[in-house]
Design the sequence.
């Protein structure tokens, strides 16, 4: 068994590797499934609604997290393996279903696959909190997001290519195989448990969320991620229905966002550890507002590609800084639960913004939807201003 406690390289590799599996699922839902349902002539509002529904498990992290903390004696990686098994099984099954014939079973299986990946996510977060300090949380979050976004980029480029040539059912099968291979690494890593005693989870959670700073961070979390949800859902549809680009081209342009998200997350991790969470967030969010609004001028594929990449860089930066902030205010005794609640609320903003994207496009058009995506950062900045961060939290 490999001990990673004092080996930073292996630590970053482990968490980046686990988040890589999450990135594959993001590519499955926000690129492959969106294109697959549009290929089957499912209306745009219904398509974005279905993708939003299958992502709901990310919003229910407060359900999975107490389970991880309550059964802390079994360790974090036990639930990573169990969650991965559920995801892999559902991906294999969904590859056998045609959504134009059986849309409900198709949706349910992808939903359950996200339940499994949700357990991987919250267990990985709790494990990272166990082995991290304030000095390296930014870099750990950077490695995690880099892994997630790298997988998203690869999937965004490769999945439409495979789907166009061999059918999208093969995409789900290949995704299952890839996640199964990723699960091998946790088996060989030794987990050093920080506690074997059952925690009084409910009382600790209530006491933590009575704190003003924690409450403000909880309000900030969904607001800062709404833009990412809108962008992730609207761009493949804009490229297909707005610019008339083929699925293969959409895949290669879609990979630009996660590639720059990965770069931005790595740089954002270093920057937020160096200059502080709030300063980093002001910088990354400010630039993201400007470039999100500038999408109204992206009427060709090359203009879209340039602006999309810049948005991805700043989005990766503020995502990493935000999650480092979440870890700062999290009590390690309930690491999975409290951090999971904060990131779960963040996913409410991300997924909620995505779910209404189809209706926004139909009602407002693409240009006004882009402006709306920039505007949603305003309330986030107001709440960020009120958050007071004490050094050495």
Sequence:
């Amino acid at each position: 068994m490999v001990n990673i406690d004092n080996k930073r390289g292996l630590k970053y590799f482990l968490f980046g590797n686990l988040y890589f599996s999450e990135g594959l699922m993001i590519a499955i839902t926000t690129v492959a499934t969106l294109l697959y349902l549009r290929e089957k002539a499912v209306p745009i509002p219904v398509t974005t609604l279905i993708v939003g529904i299958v992502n709901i498990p990310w919003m229910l992290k407060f359900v999975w997290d107490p389970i991880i903390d309550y059964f802390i004696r079994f360790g974090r990686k036990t639930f990573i393996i169990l969650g991965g098994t559920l995801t892999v099984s559902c991906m294999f099954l969904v590859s056998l279903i045609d959504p134009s014939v059986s849309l409900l079973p198709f949706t349910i299986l992808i939903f359950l696959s996200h339940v499994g990946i949700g357990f991987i996510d919250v267990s990985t977060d709790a494990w990272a909190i166990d082995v991290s300090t304030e000095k390296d949380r930014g870099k750990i979050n950077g490695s995690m997001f880099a892994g997630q976004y790298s997988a998203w980029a690869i999937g965004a480029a490769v999945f439409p290519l495979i789907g166009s040539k061999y059918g999208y059912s093969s995409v789900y099968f290949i995704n299952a195989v890839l996640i199964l291979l990723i699960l091998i690494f946790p088996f060989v890593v030794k987990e050093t448990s920080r506690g074997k005693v059952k925690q009084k989870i409910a009382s600790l959670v209530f006491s933590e969320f009575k704190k003003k700073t924690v409450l403000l961070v909880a309000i900030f979390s969904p607001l800062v991620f709404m833009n990412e949800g809108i962008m992730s859902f609207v761009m493949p549809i804009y490229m297909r229905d707005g610019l008339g680009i083929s699925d293969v081209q959409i895949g290669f342009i879609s990979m630009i966002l996660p590639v720059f998200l990965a770069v931005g997350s790595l740089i954002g991790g270093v920057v937020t550890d160096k200059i502080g969470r709030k300063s980093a967030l002001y910088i990354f969010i400010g630039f993201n507002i400007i470039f999100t609004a500038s999408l109204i001028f992206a009427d060709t594929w090359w203009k879209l590609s340039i602006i999309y990449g810049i948005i991805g860089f700043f989005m990766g930066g503020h995502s990493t800084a935000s999650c480092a902030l979440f870890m700062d205010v999290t009590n390690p005794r309930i690491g999975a639960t409290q951090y999971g609640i904060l990131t779960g609320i963040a996913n409410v903003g991300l997924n909620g913004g995505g779910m209404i994207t189809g209706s926004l496009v139909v009602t407002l058009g693409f240009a006004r939807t882009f402006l709306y995506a920039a505007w949603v950062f305003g309330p986030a900045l107001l709440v960020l201003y009120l958050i007071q961060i004490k050094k050495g939290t």
